[in-house]
Amino acid sequence: MRYVSCRDEQGSVADESACFHLPKPSATEMCTVTPCGQWKALEWSSCSVTCGQGKATRQVICIDYSDQLVDRSECDPDDLPATEQDCSMSPCHPNSHDYGRPIHPFLYPDHRLKLHPGGSPNRNRAHIPGGNQWRIGPWGACSSTCAGGFQRRVVVCQDENGYTANNCDEKTKPMEQRSCESGPCPQWAYGNWGECTKPCGAGTRTRLVVCQRPNGERFTDLSCEILDKPPDREQCNVQDCPRDAAWSAGPWSSCSVSCGRGQRHRTVYCLTKEGRHVEEDYCKHLVKPNVQKKCRGGRCPKWKSGDWGQCSVSCGRGVQRRAVQCHGGAPTAACDPASQPAAQRDCQLPLCPTHHWATGEWQQCMKTCGEAARYRKVFCVDESKQVQSSTHCDASKRPPEMESCGLPPCEYIWITGEWSECSVTCGKGYRQRLVSCSEIYTGKDHYEYGYQNTVSCPGTQPPNIQPCYLGECPVSASWRVSNWGSCSVTCGVGIMHRSVQCLTNDDQLSNLCHVDLKPEERRTCHNVHDCELPRSCSDVKNLKGVTEDSEYFLKVKGKTLKVYCSGMQTDSPKEYVTLVNGDAENFSEVYGYRLHNPTECPYNGSRREDCQCRKDYTAAGFSTFSKVRLDLNTMQIITTDLQFARTHDGRPVPYATAGDCYSAAKCPQVFDKGIPPSPPLSALRSGTL
Fold it and tell me: Which segments constitute the GON domain (predicted)?
């Protein structure tokens, strides 16, 4: 949560109606607290072996403070307890003469003696005269899981045959009990108290209480239940709240600066109705007035400088000057002399020239009216008036070589030529003539065709084209078509129609048009937007009722494809892909010529029919393709479907197949466009869409 209030320009709280024209920011938002997890280790499993060295394992899970199972990512992987440890059982001695004899029934249920590791049976028994000996079992588990305990084992007296005896030496009897240390017991640990929920009137505060060992290893609360758990929640600030406590603000201080932007400050107290100072917590439910605000102490004086003037010289080294003055501030205030900008600086212009430009006389204008120009010669001369190279003079100061004559505007007139012959020999046509806007030249008694802008001539431009009629032409007719109508469906595959009529040149119906040249009156149309497309040609036929072989849009593998449906009049239409370049660049070939000498490489691998060859390869053929069959389930081309293939020579060749028996040598081979490279004897390539 956060506090949202309407403030005025000074930062003080204003009525919300003053901010009604602005969107109010949100005062609350959702937040997610990630639970803290801790590792919990379950009991160790039995040893993986019954004798010798083995492994014991245990499961480690991640739980929260409520002992609920959570995701392992909530626990620290660096604190993960071990899940595997070594374990030692009685030694295994399959070759010992004692193995398999009956022993004390309380040691092992199967009455077999298990030896400790080491290989010698003497380690499991204490020899005494007469053949009797002490036999020992493995140590049991520690009696306590923490703070120390004891372990016990079975010690029995047996004779040399492994049967129980009574006369073993008590002085050599191994110990039956020993102490064991399992580490310190977990205890309750607690953190610091949090903040009180209320400043007065009995609030609550909480702290974290966990069961853990001194090294920080945590356990469930059950592991510490023998101890009294410290409280994790208590009351706080139980004193009564003072009534009618409110903020009280003192007067604003003077501005912190004498000029420019500064700050004003004031003291804000929390007071009771009686005017007694109390802690600010008693007023924190109210909006605290600002303790500072911005202020301006007047305009500070500052230096202002004007633009730099021109250099004091026209060439060489000179001086530039500008005005610098102190503006603003109180009458007694002054600008800092240390920050005063410079009022003068040096300037360096190009070196003074020793050469200059000279000009000749202007020539006469070539025209007496309109736009025209006159010219003169420009020279670069030295101090002796001798002509020098132009590179010695300043190019930026070169005088102009051309200027406008400033003549009065010319007069223009329309000039027309003779009409041409009619554009047709019968019926309605047109004829044309040359129309030009020509300038009237002074001193000339005739006009010339020119290329001036037609806007210069007065009045409307005379026509340059007019109709002509040379009598009716013999009756002829042609097919006329209207625009295509709208599609019969709003989505999927439909039909659209147009009108096709045979009309004479005077728009009369006729039957003189050639039937083979009649344009189509209907065609299929495809609207693929906002429509569930069929997934096969069978769907097009069954769902749309279409029986015409044509291109249709299908939804295949989640994508929209344009597919040609063939056999729409049958029960099993087939899908084909129309090849963009048709059979011009889509062909398959098995070359039929074979060299008489298959070990040579004539013509650098080029195929030529005038080679020393024979054409007797029975599998040869050449086929071109305009469409290929598509398997919608595997998205592969069915190369053996030849419905839209033409075989031009030999046997039909499947799509994407090429081969030859031209030469058995490793020759560089050159193939025509469209044939993939192949090994010398044969090749086969299959296509996948």
Answer: 533-689
What's the whole-number mean pLDDT along residues 38-60?
Answer: 85
Amino acid at 658: A
As given in the structure block, the two tokens for residue 441 are 């030249």
**Per-residue model confidence as pLDDT tens digits over 275-327:** 888 888 788 778 889 999 999 877 788 888 999 999 988 888 899 999 998 88
State the pLDDT at residue 457: 83
Determine which helix (DSSP H) or strand (DSSP E) holds 134, and give its type and residue range. Answer: strand 133-136
Helices (H), 521-654: 537-544
Q: Decide: 98 and 127 in contact? Cβ < 8 Å.
A: no
* Cβ 252 vs Cβ 222: under 8 Å: no
DSSP letter for 96, please. Answer: -
CA distance 686 to 671: 18
Q: Which residue has the higher pLDDT, 648 or 665?
A: 648
- For residue 439, the surrounding DSSP H or E stretch is strand 435-439
Q: Which two tokens stand for residue 420?
A: 């041409």
What is the DSSP secondary structure assignment for residue 44, as one 8-state letter? Answer: P
Instruction: Let me know if 639 is exposed, middle or buried by CB neighbors in 10 A (0-12, 13-18, 19+).
Output: buried
What is the C-alpha separation between 38 and 63, in angstroms, rounded?
6
pTM: 0.27
Q: Is the dihedral of CA 622, 627, 632, 634 positive or negative?
A: positive
User: Which helix or strand (DSSP H or E) is residue 388 part of?
Assistant: strand 387-388
CA gap 328, 246 in Å, rounded? 44
Q: State mean pLDDT over 554-566.
A: 88
